[in-house]
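ARCHIVE CARD
CATEGORY: sequence design from structure
SOURCE FIELD: tokenized fold
FIELD CONTENT:
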């Protein structure tokens, strides 16, 4: 197969919905959601909004992990990762969320399939919530708004000669979709692709990506 790289969002793409949605339903009242409204109004960044809200969570480790476990991982994701590995396709998961819940859910897959995870660092404390650490501004994929840039990663991969398959679902994925060679989209990203005339393929589940890769041959 030609030199491809696979780049995927996590929340709402590899999982059924965003961690933010789960935490909002479980922990946040209207007052706690004020940072999110400030973000939507353009007053603060996406990173600062999540950092503030996640830091307000108060639950035991067991309660917090039980919430994470409610997130459903796409049943076809593991097989898709395996096919990428078999064909020497590097895999990247890039998320504006944070590493704590991603590693808790799929850390075993990340290790097994040599997936590079690009996201914000975090740690959970019962008395401080899910603490998101400020990103390193010298990192090559640093982004002031989200902490990590999907666009910068795709730009680098394309400079290295890769064709990029990208999967996403939300507003932060739109600019990345514009750069990718093949886009798999659902939810808001799908709507934005239609509005902005970005070519895309529907992503009902990861079998769509798996079948596309298999169709390319080796």
């Amino acid at each position: 197969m030609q030199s491809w790289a696979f780049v995927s969002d996590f929340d709402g793409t590899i999982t059924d919905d965003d961690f933010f949605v789960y935490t909002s339903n479980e922990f946040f009242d209207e007052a706690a959601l004020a940072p999110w409204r400030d973000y939507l109004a353009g007053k603060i960044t996406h990173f600062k909004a999540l950092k503030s809200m996640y830091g307000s969570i108060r639950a035991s480790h067991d309660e917090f992990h039980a919430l994470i476990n409610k997130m459903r991982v796409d049943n076809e994701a593991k097989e898709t990762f395996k096919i990428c590995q078999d064909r020497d396709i590097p895999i990247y998961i890039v998320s504006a969320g944070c590493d704590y819940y991603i590693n808790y859910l799929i850390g075993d897959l990340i290790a097994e399939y040599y997936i590079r995870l690009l996201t914000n660092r975090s740690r959970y404390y019962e008395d401080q919530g899910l603490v998101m650490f400020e990103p390193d501004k010298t990192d090559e994929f640093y982004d002031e708004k989200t902490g990590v840039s999907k666009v910068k990663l795709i730009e680098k991969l394309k400079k290295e000669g890769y064709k990029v398959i990208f999967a996403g679902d939300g507003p932060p994925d739109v600019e990345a979709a514009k750069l990718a060679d093949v886009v798999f989209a659902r939810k808001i990203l799908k709507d934005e692709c239609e509005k902005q005339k970005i070519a895309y393929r529907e992503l009902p589940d990861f079998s769509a990506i798996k079948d596309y890769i298999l169709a390319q041959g080796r």
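CARD ANNOTATION: The chain has one domain: 4-18+70-215. The chain has a mean pLDDT of 96.
SHELF: design records, drawer C
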